[in-house]
């Protein structure tokens, strides 16, 4: 069963400088689509609540969450729901997190078994309050999941504050894909990711590709924040040079009134152009489109 309503409306009130367009609260036609209402949604929600688990789908108000839940999958969010950083694009709460829950990895494994997942995507809040950024907790979760040799695990990690030993701890647990989102172009970092650092993120990706060359390195980019095509192409070239082989490109949609507004809604034809350019640069796998998120259909991207 489907509904024709928009899965997630941006609260953006204008296009702020999009050339040739007047300010409007309406989304462009390509951001309207059918949303599944049935499927495995209730099963997914039950498993999450039973295990006291969280998803980035809900915490970050992902526009694909209804579709993913209906398909019986979700991106698990571990180490709590409070982030120590306050990125301007993200709706996840920020502040002082609670101590890590040592039983969380086992509960997540139980939920994965009940959901019958063969590909598991895990992400985390940033935990600058922890000496290792939570790397040990992440590694324990991956190790427990991979006791079942039929399960593949993708980790979407923070930058660990530039702690390369923490990165090594995660990679030594043998995830099948290592993902760290670069998010946006360097000039947008001060306004969009003020507590992050572009060079630090790039160095982390480069180190991951060098330390464990057999593990594919993945990264994601948001567009519609005021960046230029030239900046995106330069970003893609730097990611490829750093060893990133899987790239996702998606439209930024303002999740709430407190987050930075959308500057421009990128046309699907431009997303296709970005994909073509990325493939010419040499990325092995590229997904580019308005609803693309770094964990959206991750299993298909990693195994297809």
Structural notes for this entry:
It is a single chain. The strands form two sheets. The chain has an eight-stranded mixed beta sheet. A two-stranded antiparallel ribbon has the order 1-2. With 304 residues, it is α/β, with parallel strands linked by helices. It is built from eleven helices and ten strands. The chain has a single domain, classed as Aldolase class I (TIM Barrel). Helix 9 links the parallel strand 8 and strand 9.
Helix fraction by DSSP (H/I, runs of at least 4): 25-40%
The number of E-state strands comes to 10
Q: What's the number of structural domains? A: 1
Order of helices and strands: EEHEHHEHEHEHEHHEHEHEH
Specify the oligomeric state. single chain
The CATH topology? TIM Barrel
| Beta-strand content | 5-15%
Question: Could you give the distance between the termini?
Answer: 27 Å
Query: What gross morphology would you assign?
Result: globular
- Assigned CATH class: Alpha Beta
Number of helices: 11
What would you report as the Rg, rounded to the nearest angstrom? 18 Å
Biggest sheet: strand arrangement: 3-4-5-6-7-8-9-10
Average pLDDT taken over every residue: 85
CATH architecture descriptor: Alpha-Beta Barrel
Structural class: alpha/beta
- Low-confidence sequence ranges: 1-24
Q: Strand count, sense and closure of the main sheet?
A: 8 strands, mixed
């Amino acid at each position: 069963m489907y509904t024709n309503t928009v899965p997630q409306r941006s609260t953006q009130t204008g296009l702020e400088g999009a050339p040739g367009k007047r300010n409007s609260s309406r989304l462009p036609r390509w951001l309207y689509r059918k949303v599944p209402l049935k499927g495995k949604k209730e099963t997914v929600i039950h498993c999450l609540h039973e295990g006291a688990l969280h998803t980035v789908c809900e915490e970050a108000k992902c526009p694909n969450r209804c579709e993913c839940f209906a398909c019986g999958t979700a991106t698990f969010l571990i180490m709590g729901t409070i982030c120590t950083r306050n990125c301007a694009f993200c709706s996840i709460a920020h502040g002082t997190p609670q101590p890590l829950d040592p039983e969380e990895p086992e509960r997540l494994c139980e939920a994965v078994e009940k959901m019958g997942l063969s590909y598991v995507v895990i992400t985390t809040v940033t935990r600058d309050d922890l000496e290792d950024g939570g790397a040990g907790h992440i590694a324990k979760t991956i190790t427990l999941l991979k006791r079942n040799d039929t399960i593949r695990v993708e980790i979407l990690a923070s930058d660990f504050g530039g702690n390369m030993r923490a990165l090594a701890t995660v990679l030594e647990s043998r995830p099948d894909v290592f993902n760290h989102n670069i998010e946006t172009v360097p000039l947008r970092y001060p306004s969009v990711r003020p507590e992050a650092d572009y060079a630090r993120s790039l160095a982390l990706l480069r180190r991951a590709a060098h330390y464990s060359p057999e593990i594919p390195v993945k990264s994601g980019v948001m567009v519609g924040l005021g960046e230029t095509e030239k900046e995106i192409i330069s970003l893609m070239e730097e990611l490829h040079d750093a060893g990133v082989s899987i790239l996702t490109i998606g439209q930024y949609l303002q999740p709430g009134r407190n987050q930075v507004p959308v500057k421009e809604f990128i046309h699907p034809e431009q997303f296709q152009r970005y994909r073509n350019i990325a493939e010419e640069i040499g990325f092995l796998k590229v997904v580019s489109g308005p609803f693309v998120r770094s964990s959206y259909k991750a299993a298909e991207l990693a195994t297809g």
